[in-house]
Structures
1.
Amino acid sequence: MDLDNKWAYLRAAGNPDWQTRPGYLPIVIDRIVEMLGELNLPLTVFTVGRDLVEDEDCVAIKSFDRMPRWEPANHSLNHLPWMHTMESSEIADEIEVTDARIREVTGRRPLGFRGPGFSCPDEVLSVLSRNDYVYDASIFPTSIAPIARAVFLMKTDLQGAEKERAKKLYGGFDSLRHPNHPFERNIAGHSLWEMPVTVMPFTRTPIHFSYFTFLASFSTLAAKSYFRTALWLCKVTGTAPSLLLHPPDFMGREDDSDLAYFPGMKMQRRDKLAIVRWALELYSTQFDVRCMIDALRTFDPAVDPDAAQLGHSRATGNNIATSTGQLAQSPSFQ
Ligand SMILES: [Zn+2]
């Protein structure tokens, strides 16, 4: 889950109200924890550093501890989707300040990062390597990136320099060059895994939940059939689906009229929660769903999920890693 807050959506839409930093984390996290807890599903949460300041947000984020298993990960400090235009020092701040806040609030160290707007310049990868991150998850290898960007630019009220910078969003056709499965990079001698957001095999269309609930707002039947097909194609092509959730997937139109422009936000809360639960249940019956770091270990047994525990020694972790060999047939993650 990318734990994007309301202010980040308002800013992306060019709405000046974002500056008062309106948010919904306490309400929505409660719903997420409840539903995923009932389904016994784990969750990786990409958290924005700006939301690790106010007490009520920190308490809400800490309440993910009520889940059977969750993993805190880094989603930048300010959620600016144009990291590719930033200076090196700014990029380092975006990642390292959030890293420190996550440690302070959750008592754990993030091992993964996802750039806002699926932006993944080389400098980001260097900072992640320098900080001993295990994976980046900023690649979205979709065929519709140029369309998604065009729709964004058409709908947003962003002006001037910000609009210019937004013109590189989603990576354009470049994003199609990337594989639809995890792969390993070598950054100055450091191994850094890339965990792309999975798209539909062959068509490369999105299968994350905002897209799915957007389809469902037109036809539940069509959306369910699309999602079933996506999971089936993942199975037959041996693709472990990394499915992306956002907080509005747990909200309906009666929750927030300011977000009405967001895909799927025309649905009533009851209908939205029902369709999301249906999809999560199907996902959990067809795949062995894991946090990103746990799933990554099926690709690379040297990966040590316990490295997230502060004060953990690497040597101990390696022993744990080599002594556990029970890998599931169909690992998956979100
Ligand atoms: Zn985000």
2.
Amino acid sequence: MNNAQEIEKLLRPLVLAPMAGGPSTPRLAAAVAGAGGLPFLAAGYLSPESLRADIADLQGYLEKSSELPFGVNLFVPDPQGSRCDVEAYSDYRARVLEVSGVSPELVPAEPIWSDDAFEEKLEIVCASAASFVSFTFAHPAPAVVERVHAAGKLVIFYATSRPGIDAIVDSGADVIGIQGPNAGGHRATVFGVDDDSNESVLELVEYARGISCKPIIAGGGVSGAADVRNLLRAGATGVQVGTLFLNAQEAGTKKTHRRALEEFGGRETVITRAFSGRPARAIENSFSAALSDSAPGFYPQLHFLTAGLRKEANERGDAENLNLWAGTGFVHAKEEPAADIARRLLAAHD
Ligand SMILES: Cc1cc2nc3c(=O)[nH]c(=O)nc-3n(C[C@H](O)[C@H](O)[C@H](O)COP(=O)(O)O)c2cc1C
């Protein structure tokens, strides 16, 4: 299927962003689908078995509600990603130990690389009932897009800039995903394609609308119904929202992250590589303040470097050493049922 009108029938004005690392759960996705949104599950960091279980759970919930559409998001391994300067890694590790004060056993001495089991997860998603498959961090090879299409699913690539949008227009993707500069979590920047410009999400949507008829989903920093309305008016078919759902009752957000969203309202968000090596927007804390400038851009090696200390920080309730992913609208993330959040955001649509 590649007809824009047919695709738009499956899209929804509200899209629940995939949120890897815990927040995305089948219950959250089902609640948002039930309220009229299009939910995405996050495959990133999950084992293939957990992804299979999450998809099965969501399919189970949705069958009861007349088979609503959903999507799954995959992290694409960077072909250059296994390159890591061991000396720079060791220097950064020493800084991390100094700043966090954690025990050295929690921080791997050697860089770890993984392709996030991309092939296995792709196979699982292709065999699932998902209508959409979105790809983050890189564009997969054309053969991958063909496989997803052959499985009867639609493909979404993300861009953070005009050159990134141009590349999607020229690609086999069916939908243009746009992530604005205020978005929480990892920037979906495709290295070597997106540039460093910081255009607003509205400007990027207008640009994409002007050059392509492909449907657009866009988001980043949405703080309420007015932002949804503005993005739809600018030409988006769906508005992708993540942060406002982080405190939803059905989300799997870590307890220390939840507490920070509630208590750190007076803090700014910053874009930092300190936790994973890739730029991501988070509520500023001691870790990012001390390490953002020295973090080398090795992903996923830095993700694994900080994984143990982040886990421990969450357990200890230490928000200063945790990756507090959040978009600029985070003060509006309230603890309530996801359906209430979705309905409030969708009220803008009528
Ligand atoms: C906790 C968290 C985890 C995220 N994980 C993913 C992910 O796995 N894949 C992805 O494409 N985007 C991810 N994102 C980015 C979202 O797709 C989306 O761009 C962002 O949530 C939109 O901005 P907002 O958070 O301000 O609403 C994540 C965002 C957050 C806050």
3.
Amino acid sequence: MYPFHWVPAAGQRHASLDAHPDGALAYPSGTGVRTLCGSQLTADNSKLAWLWETCAECNAEARRISAELPTSRGLRG
Ligand SMILES: [Zn+2]
């Protein structure tokens, strides 16, 4: 698992390191999230929102984080 999650918000698909609430698979609409591009946004979990374009800054940051992860799972911490 990657430590970040994708979250549609404010017209783009962003990524966030915030944990999903209560084991949810996504941030419910209306959830406040801190995105990798440094914004505090409100999640929009509607079907249409997932078709929005990916935020370039979040995409770059997500790739950077992924590259730093160990190749095997479960060895963090
Ligand atoms: Zn972003």
4.
Amino acid sequence: MSLPPLLLIGCGKMGGAMLAGWLEKGLPPETVVVEPHAGAVAAFAGRVRHVASIAEIPADFVPAAVILATKPQEAPNALPALAHLVRPETVFLSIMAGKTVAGLQALLGGAPHIVRAMPNTPAAVRLGFTVACPGPGVTAAQRELCDTLLSAVGEAAWVERESLIDPVTAVSGGGPAYVFLLAEVMEKAAISQGLPPDLARRMARATVAGSGALLAASTEDASTLRINVTSPKGTTERALAVLMRPEAWPALMEEAIKAATARSRELAG
Ligand SMILES: NC(=O)c1ccc[n+]([C@@H]2O[C@H](COP(=O)([O-])OP(=O)(O)OC[C@H]3O[C@@H](n4cnc5c(N)ncnc54)[C@H](OP(=O)(O)O)[C@@H]3O)[C@@H](O)[C@H]2O)c1
């Protein structure tokens, strides 16, 4: 499958991962990349057309999708400069955290077709999870194109109500941080039980990564996989009796996700 012309605005961590995913999937697009740092696009030399600023986008370039992947705080500068690209045939796919469809529309002007998406950092290894929401006017073909672009770095799913992007941000957007925290605290606890720091670090990392891979490869629920490790009256059961106290992980995760969802609502604009 080949892609129509694409315009990528911002080739940092997330934009660069997406671009790498598109190229890896054998979807060689006619792509223009706007990115101030030449080093960020060096890996893609010869495969995309790189310009350093929006003003340098070739005047005759008509993209089918404009992927907005700068930091959200750059949006007020960048988006008005893209107003000339607003037309029904072009979809704007934004991955900028907190930037609502209405906010993007106001910055772009006119009646842009916008898809708002929230990816997560495992996209860097093509194991991301992105949830997207279509704004007004987005056609089935534009939705399919965005799905293809997002699926190149992992799984993609869609919601129809934009307000759901707030809990999505809390769960999958921030989720990798919670899992990394698990590796951190497991490492510290291992050290406090007398294990050498280097071994503790390797064990914590490999256990989190290996469990994630097992979960990904299995059709079983996470709870079944957990029960499979838990022998009656054994050591894991003893540990889970601590972690699963009503006031421990179940309540804390609920509270954490609620707090992050509320913060996402506060930041939206
Ligand atoms: N990383 C995540 O976990 C994650 C998850 C979900 C969503 N997102 C969203 O993804 C977006 C990108 O995040 P990131 O982590 O990839 O950021 P990043 O690494 O800072 O990448 C953004 C890139 O865009 C460049 N840039 C700045 N102004 C530009 C302009 N006017 N035109 C073109 N490029 C410009 C930046 O250059 P300078 O460094 O000079 O500014 C930088 O190289 C953010 O909006 C973020 O909310 C990120």
